[in-house]
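FYI - complex with KG4, inputs then prediction.
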Amino acid sequence: MSTVLAIETSCDETAVAVVKNRQVCSSIINSQIPVHRQYGGVVPEVASRQHLESINQGIAEALKQAQLDWTAIDGIAATCAPGLVGALLVGITAAKTLALLHQKPFLGVHHLEGHIYANCLSEPSLEPPFLSLLVSGGHTSLIYVKDCGVYETLGETRDDAAGEAFDKVARLLKLGYPGGPIIDQLAQEGTQTFDLPEGKVSLPQGGYHRYDSSFSGLKTAVLRLVQQLERDSQPLPIKDVAASFQNTVARALTKRAIACALDYGLNTIAVGGGVAANSGLRSHLFSAASQHNLKVLFPPLKFCTDNAAMIGCAAADHLNRGHTSPLTLGVHSRLSVTEVMQLYQHQGSGVRDQMNKKI
Ligand code: KG4
Ligand code: ZN
């Protein structure tokens, strides 16, 4: 049983949480979206500075809301990969400093492992094996979750991530940033009027890849459709365009996740990442899964997009198994989730050993 203070600063949320195993004691999320919105996307340097400004307050607030002091904390965790290097550095440096100061183990956490664990916050009994559909701004992956830290990637996007496709389509529709929630809202008021291509990945031997996806062709198809509609000087049926795009993405993701779960004999699909908040994906996946007797889990909306509770949940599981990270651990802008165990050393290497090693 571990209580972890966790920090997440990989992109544009400064988040701090206290998690007792799979129970959230506090979760502070300070979103930078209003700051980045004026630039139409995340500006890395601005993100790092914003993290610096809000991190200390976030830590104090998380402890206060959890009604705990440092003696109750068993470990201090921070996202260390993948993400914006400058942004990650703010979180990991804060976590290492606190670990040294309070003589606690430090854990570096892989952001995508956090998104997988977000499901455990609402479903504490969830245990591997299961299939994870990770759909965020940077990733679209089908991951076979075999054990804590043991993952196999079965499917990926060949170009844009699902969230990236939502953001790019929103930009071309001049809807603002981030695009996912805005398109989702509009799509719920529109109907699927336009046929758009799903974006299949061809195999050299013929046929299509069952688990990989591709969204860049879909984005171009939306652009062509909008140009055509504008040429015909019709008022742009923006809600119907949004609904057609969203349904196509939801259908493509659902088809691949169901095929993968059935092929590998996995009866639970746990979805994670910002696009897990999408209403179209939720309804498509629930209805397809029920036809195949599969269980589908989505985290609560507040834990779909970036947060520190999911990082704390993953860290607590590692800490319970005696995994800690050396204080020499750095950040990685790119690191596959299959390489998570590189971040840890095993039992017997507590913070004292870590400090001695460093010295
Ligand atoms: O997981 P996340 O917060 O950050 C990354 O790790 O990337 O995901 C952010 C992404 C953005 O692309 C955003 O547009 C998308 O998730 N997103 C959504 C929705 N809410 C957030 N996409 C579709 N529908 C939503 N409701
Ligand atoms: Zn994320």
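The first strand starts at residue 3 and ends at 8. Residues 11, 136-138, 163, 166-167, 178-181, 184, 273-275, 277-278, 305-306 surround KG4 (ligand 1) (CB under 6 Å).
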